[in-house]
Amino acid sequence: MIVNLSQTVRRVAKRLPNHPAITSERGTISYGQLETNIGRIAGALRGRLGLARGARVGIAMENCAEYFEVLYGIWRAGLVAVPMNAKLHEKEIAFILGNADCKACFCTPELADRLGALQIFAPGMPGVLSTDSKDYAALLASDCIDDVESGPEDEAWLFYTSGTTGRPKGAVLSFRNLLFMAHCYYADIDNLDERDVKLHAAPLSHASGLYAIPHLAKGAHNIVLSGSFEPDRIFDVLAHHQSVTMFAAPTMLSRLINHQRAGSADTRGLRTLYFGGAPMYVSDLKKALEIFGPKLVQIYGQGESPMTISFVGKHVLAQTDHPRREEILASCGVPRTGVDVKVVDGDGRELPAGEIGEVITRSDCVMGGYWNNPEANAKSLRDGWLWTGDLGFADAEGFLTLKDRSKDMIISGGSNIYPREIEEVLLTHPMVLECAVIGREHPDWGEEVVAFVVPRPDATLTAQGLDALCLENVARYKRPRDYRIVESLPKNSYGKILKTDLRQLLKESGNA
Description:
Number of helices: 18
Strand content: 25-35%
CATH topology of the domain at 1-151: Rossmann fold
Structural class: alpha/beta
Shape: globular
Largest sheet: 9 strands, mixed
Distance between the termini: 56 Å
Number of strands: 26
Radius of gyration: 23 Å
CATH architecture of the domain at 1-151: 3-Layer(aba) Sandwich
């Protein structure tokens, strides 16, 4: 069986050579142009640059049209892509490039300058390749090559985890993994064709770029927004295009629904807004459904099983009269098509409905393992199952509800306390914009609860008011013993709150 994802673009180009493939700041290129550029980059990688089959090539690029030319060119050449978030520090990018033993790295200009100064690559290697350079122009003038034959188990994408608790690990994703992910999109979310538009306002190295794969395979028009996330630009696209799909991390979705144009802007062009990557609080989800209508899909996955563990579909989220609506909105849904999900105890025994344990999954989307990390593989991959590190429970209908990462659970006086439960309560306060709950060491109880709370602009919050809210909604032993009112919460480049940084902040302040 021969599989290479770059073939999907070639097929669309044969059928729809003049159809728009990518629109960015540099204009619009057609599928015919995209196909030509992919072939030329592939030819240059194998010929002019002399990279051997299976070599790993980094992509540290801000959102731009060249991203897809490079990604699919790498695949056509029989090489392995290592995409990285351009918002990472250059030393973090350098670690990933070294860990993956990359032979080259494509960068947008500003990153190319910063990485070039680090002298990462050995002499004789292609090194840093800027998209705004004579070298890149020369690549696009190279002779095209046909696809290098690839099998379903061949490595395609080395997905490095966000590294919120230490050095990132590289999940090895095969062509089989990515094709299964794409087919699951068609089965569970939307069937696609050339009338669809994929809006990319989040980093292409992550959830937005991953779901470009099923869209490009069907001839959809991809609109790439560079620079920082700006809600105005999103609303402008929705007003001028139809059948638009986009990804939003919960922090992005919060900015959209709290923007001054929310509720008044024309969003009829939106077809699907899928969200995931971090917990979505029920209060924000309800507001988003009021503003956008029944167009939201919740996705639960990990880099180790990209985008594909469970989901809550549009029609389920839209059921306002469902007797269990609150529980469903707080859940991350049912297993994706062809995906097995279980909640187990420490020995791998499946737990009854309602009991909390670790979530494990298996499917053709689960990674082959971590790159050069047998210790992590032994911990995460057991008997064909991926142990996610997420704690949760399944109800009698199969809906999975996550409580927290196992490392974030607080144990106080022998009782388990799940920060998300308290965060959900705090976010019902009309003056609370964001919050994060962590544990702090306590000499008698083991740990006690601390809440970091960000107020809305011009709002006044008091610890007494927040404590009264918690006492009205959760057991007394769960309520925070300390409320920290802060201007912002530390986040990584994907918008996830860094609770490790908050714990360090407590230590440095002498309140660990």
